[in-house]
């Protein structure tokens, strides 16, 4: 039940925040939140992370569907048991579905979280992207810190 609840929470927060941005901002509008570090900036992304594969919306939507199916069908083989890994699964699935909704409904993904510092600029992203990255991070840390199974 944990993955489903986490996924639903991510989807609701992601879609609500994106809807708010689209209703309040014009495309490319920026509102500084922490001047010199963080702004809300409305961007439309037709690609993947950092705008890679721009214009490949349907291929990326198909890839998202395949990854979602793989995660759900093979979750027991991919993720070790434990509450933290169930949360990671929920974050991954919720993030994938959040961006997939945008791709299928709007033909782009709404990004708006915009970080920068002293000439360094991280591409804008959204709550679904953050959930996917945190889910992957939890999985990788769990895999790296896991104790090897005892020798038979």
Structure description:
The chain has 152 residues and is an alpha+beta fold. The protein has one domain. The chain is built from 5 helices and 4 strands; from the N terminus they run αββαααββα. The chain has helices at 2-24, 57-73, 75-78, 83-106, 127-145, and strands spanning 30-34, 38-45, 109-117, 120-125. A 4-stranded antiparallel beta sheet has the order 1-2-3-4. A hairpin with a 2-residue loop joins β3 (109-117) and β4. α1 (2-24) runs parallel beside α4, α2 runs antiparallel to α4 and α4 runs antiparallel to α5 (127-145). The longest helix is centred in the middle third of the chain and has 24 residues, at 83-106. The chain is globular and about 60 Å long. The protein starts with a helix and ends in a 7-residue tail after the last helix. The relative contact order is 0.20. The model has no long low-confidence stretch (mean pLDDT 91).
Tally of DSSP β-strands = 4
Determine the fraction of residues in helical runs and give it as a percent range.
Answer: 55-70%
Briefly note the structural class of the backbone.
alpha+beta
Q: Please tell me the total number of domains.
A: 1
**What would the principal axes of the Cα set say about the shape?**
globular
Instruction: Give the strand order, joined by hyphens, for the main sheet.
Output: 1-2-3-4
The SSE order reads HEEHHHEEH
Count the helices. How many?
5
| Average pLDDT metric | 91
In whole angstroms, the N-to-C terminal distance is: 33 Å
Give the low-confidence spans: none
For the sheet with most strands, the description reads: 4 strands, antiparallel
Q: What integer value in Å does the Rg equal?
A: 17 Å
**SS strand fraction:** 15-25%
